[in-house]
Amino acid sequence: MQTDLLSENMSEKEEMKDITKEASSKEETSSSFVLDIHDLSKMYGVFSAVNNLTLQVKKGEIFGFLGHNGAGKTTTINMLTTLLEPSSGSGTVAGYDIVEEALEVRRKIGYLPENVRFYDSMTAYENLDYFARLSGISKPDSRIWDVLDFLDARTYAHKKISTLSKGMRQRIGIAQAIIHEPEILFLDEPTSGLDPFGVKQLRDVILRLNSEKGITIFMNTHLLQEVTKTCSTIGVLNHGNLIYLDSLSNTMKRFRDEKSLEDIYLNIENSKEE
Ligand SMILES: Nc1ncnc2c1ncn2[C@@H]1O[C@H](COP(=O)(O)OP(=O)(O)OP(=O)(O)O)[C@@H](O)[C@H]1O
């Protein structure tokens, strides 16, 4: 990948607000953060998978959480979505404590895990109806069609999940994750296993969810190009430690001499090793 591509990606982002700069403003109040965690850690026995993670994500951001395999990204998302109790530290998501108010957090978030699970012998509509009722939605039918229309997935409604392609399963997974109109959507490696066309379609969906529905996005990924095309802010996790946090625009400026996204990433990782 050449610098031309970097510039092209950057020009797409030039109008994007410098979110990190704003987030660091002293006038910032905690209420403008949809995610606010302090010294969050997770130990598996004596092994520290996530180590004193402190992080804020503003409403409306698309946050890209980067890291190599085993860095601790999924463990972090599992803590933020209340699936896993932290060993220490504290945090709020959508204003609710991730330990003390886990049920309230769950009502306010959507989550698309890396391998989303459905009832495969049921249709997409039946799966969504089940989740909509579980979420206590009063008029599930109209909500399901609204979401399917937004995702351009109406034609798949009455197909069995087992007959859907990976890309379409992901789309129904997103429908399930947003059926209850969450404030923040967590995505764990959402483009994993998709072909280039599927990757582009999913990227467009993520951008529209953010711009048209106002949903804050927290996305785990190791695909660097996806980050430049989607995210406003990036964090890099390395062996459970947050080693980098800044807006995408600042990152591109800071590393303007690097030839590729991979070089930027390696520069960030190496600078921590030194
Ligand atoms: N239940 C568990 N018990 C023990 N160790 C675990 C457990 N779950 C995860 N780990 C370890 O914690 C570390 C972080 O794992 P995690 O899945 O959070 O990383 P990741 O960044 O999401 O990686 P990947 O991109 O491969 O999914 C890894 O070393 C992993 O082996």
TrEMBL record:
Residues in the signal sequence: none
GO MF, one annotated term: ATP hydrolysis activity
The ABC transporter domain, residue ranges: 35-264
Source organism superkingdom: Archaea
Feature: compositional bias, Basic and acidic residues: 10-24
Region: Disordered, residue numbers: 1-24
Gene3D superfamilies registered for this protein in UniProt: P-loop containing nucleotide triphosphate hydrolases
InterPro entries: AAA+_ATPase, ABC_transporter-like_ATP-bd, ABC_transporter-like_CS, ABC_Transporter_VariousFunc, P-loop_NTPase
Entry keyword set: ATP-binding, Nucleotide-binding, Transport
Name of the molecule in the record: ABC-2 type transport system ATP-binding protein
